[in-house]
Amino acid sequence: MLAKAEIKREREFHFTDQDFQSVRNKLYEQAGISLNDSKRDLVYGRLSRRLRACRMGDFSSYLKYLESPEGKSELVQFINALTTNLTAFFREPHHFDYMAKTVLPEAMRRHAGDHRIRFWSAGCSTGEEPYSIAITLLEEMASLKNWDTKILATDLDSNVVETARLGRYNTQRIEGLSRTRASKWFHPVAGGSGDQVQVATALQDLITFKQLNLMQEWPMKGKFDLIFCRNVVIYFDKPTQRKLFDRYADALVTGGYLFIGHSENMHNLSNRFELVGQTIYRKIS
């Protein structure tokens, strides 16, 4: 009987250790994301599609192309291909409960004079997180009419940002929501087959979607009351995480909040926050 390695289909493209290391270096240089050795097959699978699209015969040629002036636009596709986007509406629901019961009342007291509230979904993926934030805001605030309330939603992957901006989802994506919430904030796509829903305009009006590389300059000038950055820093090494948490602290008002992912923490990475709940941090300096 043949061993599994012997019957495994031969790969379409030659992919050396040096190629893999070059991919890792390029992704870290461009996005600060660290890939471990276990991601080799994932890298091959996702970038093989890009080699076919660019009509490249091997990884070495593709990597050289990324370095050329002509390959500048392909660099965006390279990053998109290697970015993992897994999300859901009201994922980690304790964050939205805390936002409703603690963060929002504090923000309204803090901004009683200027009526200005700003939230940021950093790593918004296909939009489920910022739309969940918007739903929470509209359900908790009796009226936003007299408030300047905005949500910024950003992601490294330009493709998912466009999906998020469109706000159209398969009906399966909202099956976890209550019937009341689903019917209020999502409507069947007109003229469709019934398998897609469109988010309510009131939600879209609250959100500005932008492509943003967290490792580059941030164009935002004002301070935020709350930043969601969940399951993002897990892809970075410790020095990059430390730098990013410091930048988030700078972007928050004193007393503002940072929500991170269930497998992330700030241990030995920042002294500018205090832990106030499960993966919930409050800025103290």
Structure write-up:
The structure is a single chain. The chain is of the alpha/beta class. It folds into two domains: 74 residues, Chemotaxis receptor methyltransferase CheR, N-terminal domain (Chemotaxis Receptor Methyltransferase Cher, domain 1, Orthogonal Bundle), CATH 1.10.155.10; 191 residues, 3-Layer(aba) Sandwich (Rossmann fold), CATH 3.40.50. The protein has eleven helices and ten strands. The strands form two sheets. Strands 6-2-1-7-8-10-9 form a seven-stranded mixed beta sheet. A three-stranded antiparallel beta sheet has the order 3-5-4. Strand 9 and strand 10 form a beta hairpin. The longest helix is centred in the middle third of the chain and has 18 residues. The N and C termini lie far apart (65 Å). 31% of the residues are buried. The N terminus is likely disordered.
